[in-house]
Amino acid sequence: MYLESVTVYDHSLNPVASIHGWSSFIWTERYQEVGEFEIRIPDSDPDLLGYLDDYMDKFIKIPYSEETMIIEEIAYEGGRSDSAVYIRGRDAKTILNRRVLVATSTIPYGPTTDEVLRQVFDDEIANPSEKGRQIDLVRFDNPSSWKTHHLDYDVKGHSVWDLFLYCAQIYRCGLRTYWRDGKIRFQFWGPRERSGVGGSFPVVFSEETSTLTNIVYRKTSATYRTSAYVHVEGGPNNSVVINEDVSNRFGKGLNRREMFVDPGWQNMSQLSDNSAIRQSLRPYGRSALYKQAFFDNITGEVKRNGLYTYGIDQDFFLGDRVALEVGGRRQYARIKEYTFSWTIETGFIGYPTLDSSPVGDTFM
């Protein structure tokens, strides 16, 4: 992949300048968290800072990614030798962090999650009552498949980004930005099964295929748990206390290893102890037990090669579950982030970062 210059865009997404003459450029995009970038321009004069000031808070893009980055920092680092200017920033998901949940005093009980998010986006960003808060540049793709009956979230002191990240985490999905019709659009998307399980397309990183290096294999029972008590309390004067016991088939006698789980429910004044409430608590327990399972853990670095292609419509993408294999032992991992790196010394390198911690099914 060749990259000679980076285009700078204004707040109407019109190209206004380009950045070139750099010695290194690192662009990292992430599954749920905010991505970031750094450009290093060597042998620079401090006077360059005045010229680059016009780039602050503007956007940059590269042809190999649909994400958009925002220039947030321009720094000069000088000395007797090797002086350089650094341009740094984060991706456009940070726009959501520019608006706090001020028009949204509570999350109402009843509307589905997609209805809540669309209303929040409209009230805080797209069409707020205080027009100075409006950001016309951005749009939100409706996550229409999210039909759970209630989103439980305490809005106090939080931003729109906090709420969106929370939803991405509980629904086990990614959050990204892309351009369409002159707007930056926010989109939740579901990761794919790319481990070969269930006949899915297999993406397997291993020593045998020279796609995995610096490998560590580990198996431990120190964090193993067999039984989870999902704890909630509420009702009038917190008079209702529920500890729903969720155990696997090993949860007996000496082999039983217990833990508490807090589902994070808010607004529990109407809590009652009934079978429907207990049933809704059980997925939290199962998910927690899965994370504390007795499993083989394999970590390593993925080497760049021609076996697999990265991209949302390619072999693997952010959030996809892939396989790691060492000595016949297989472990599954999520693509946590992907880095594009260009340097004068090494040229282009592209590599994913894997999260091999257990990831269970969604709570919902």
TrEMBL record:
Residues 6-342 form the Gp28/Gp37-like domain. It comes from the Bacteria. Pfam families: Sipho_Gp37 (PF14594). This is Gp28/Gp37-like domain-containing protein. It comes from Rothia mucilaginosa. The lineage of its organism: Bacteria, Bacillati, Actinomycetota, Actinomycetes, Micrococcales.
